Amino acid sequence: MASVMAANGGQSHAPVTGRFAAVYSEVQNSRIDHALPLPSVLGKPFKMVNGPRSSAAGNPDEIAKLFPCLFGQPPAMLVPGESSDFPSGQILKIGVVLSGGQAPGGHNVISGIFDYLQDRCKGSTLYGFRGGPAGIMKCKYVVLTSEYIYPYRNQGGFDMICSGRDKIETPEQFKQAEETTLKLDLDGLVVIGGDDSNTNACLLAENFRRKNMKTRVIGCPKTIDGDLKCKEVPASFGFDTACKVYAEMIGNVMIDARSTGKYYHFVRLMGRAASHITLECALQTHPNISLIGEEVAANKLTLKNVTDYIANVICHRAELGYNYGVILIPEGLIDFIPEVQQLIAELNEILAHDIVDEGGLWKKKLNDQSLQLFEFLPPAIQEQLMLERDPHGNVQVAKIETEKMLIQMVETELEQRKQRGTYKGQFKGQSHFFGYEGRCGLPSNFDSAYCYALGYAAGALLHSGKTGLISSVGNLAAPVGEWTVGGTALTSLMDVERRHGKFKPVIKKAMVELDGAPFKKFASMREEWALNNRYISPGPIQFSGPVADTVNHTLLLELGDTA
Ligand code: FBP
């Protein structure tokens, strides 16, 4: 059995994690040795084929100015064949960093990079930067050996090297990153992260290229939120597992609701901005109500409209004799309600310029409508809206208890309806937040294989000298052997946005599309689910058996398969 303590190399000799395969559960142990399939193109000699020149997701002129060295890079695709793209006998020094929130499968991306180097660039070194981008800036790393990596294969979490949300942004921070890459003589760096982290990866790649440094940078699409995707990158890893974990829990509270007959479970689900997780969980479990942020925004709903919608369904159900139900709420919901969005935008500017005084004079900076809304919100929500933004300038929606706020508002509305004689039921709300529980589960078969392929592909891209690309594995509805492998220009995913009061390049988030197949399927079924109880309880993630390789509905529907 491998002990990570003994294998801890690099700069630090203190144990960084407590992983011992010897104390693993039987399931964890059985997963370590689970052999992972690779796309067949990676199993044979391959060559690189470049596609046409790329543009940007928005504001191409601005992006071209911000990334003069990288803008326009073509996508790259691996295809069978011999070539000199992948020099044999090359020994590489590669760094890898996990950035942002955990997502099941991160350890497999690292295993994939490591195995690529073992298979194709023997004698290479893989450095794991510890604690996210701060590890690069502070040159904190561990040398990843096969013994070190072994206990983490197919395991959830990011604790092999841990993660962080620091951003490499200021000239000093770029300098620190440069010093580390020079000190370790890095040929390449793999940034495993979400939209913000991959934006950072692109900035680093541009900086290294501009300075004629040899270090290349490749990104990998990570986030349970599922909002880092495009045609060439059909999914971010972790989404599949997280949704399956949440769907199991939702299925359980559905059975609880049906059994006691007296609770409305308000379940807030993670997913900072986009509502993909909520939509996928709805498709997997058929709750009575699922709010989709993007639809709320498109219809310009107010908090009162949302409350009324929930109260209407509850009244209808009471008439049918059901005083229970399950309601899914995306954690980013309040950021989609135009009036709250406006309030948050104003608060962001106020917080960015540090003008929050104890006496509350800062409130004068809010416009009348925003001030009215702010004063109307429960004090707990007011406080949560004022919490510090994350290093990328985002509101920390995971800390805003929208589910509790909605219970309060629905309760008040139902009370009024009772007094008017239009509601005769009983209402008891139970609040839940399913968030962190889904981020570190044992990766599903899909995420295990997908992440391993992403890592292996990142190794290949660096080996061929590519930079500023995001590892891209496609054709995901097909068996793993038929998956396609390549890289997509990070600049082609970019747009400019206002953050911390300034315009910045960002990877454009992929939101739920209201004319997309997943939403349309949900919309066609939600009325039936609202009044009739069509609950589905998917149970825990399976690693073997008939449903073990089932892929999530969102991906299949988006790829044009029936789900
Ligand atoms: P990433 O975008 O970094 O993958 O993180 C996603 C997420 O899990 C969101 O769903 C959630 O809002 C946020 O992280 C929570 O952040 P933190 O881990 O800092 O509490």
Describe what this molecule looks like in 3D:
With 563 residues, the chain is an alpha/beta fold. It is 39% helix and 15% strand. It is built from 20 helices and 16 strands. It has helices at 4-7, 26-32, 60-66, 106-120, 133-137, 146-149, 171-183, 195-210, 239-260, 276-285, 293-298, 303-319, 333-336, 338-352, 368-376, 379-385, 402-420, 445-463, 517-531, 553-558; strands at residues 46-50, 76-80, 93-99, 125-129, 141-143, 163-164, 188-193, 216-221, 264-269, 289-290, 325-330, 429-434, 469-474, 484-489, 494-499, 502-507. Strands 1, 2, 3, 4, 5, 6, 7, 8, 13 and 14 form a 10-stranded mixed sheet that branches. It has a 4-stranded parallel sheet with strand order 10-11-9-12, with helices on both faces. The longest helix is centred in the middle third of the chain and has 22 residues, at 239-260. The chain is globular and about 80 Å long. The protein starts with a helix and ends in a 5-residue tail after the last helix. The model is unreliable at 1-16 (pLDDT under 50). Bound molecules: 1,6-di-O-phosphono-beta-D-fructofuranose (FBP). 1,6-di-O-phosphono-beta-D-fructofuranose binds at residues 100-101, 103, 165, 194, 222-225, 270-272, 331, 397-398, 439.
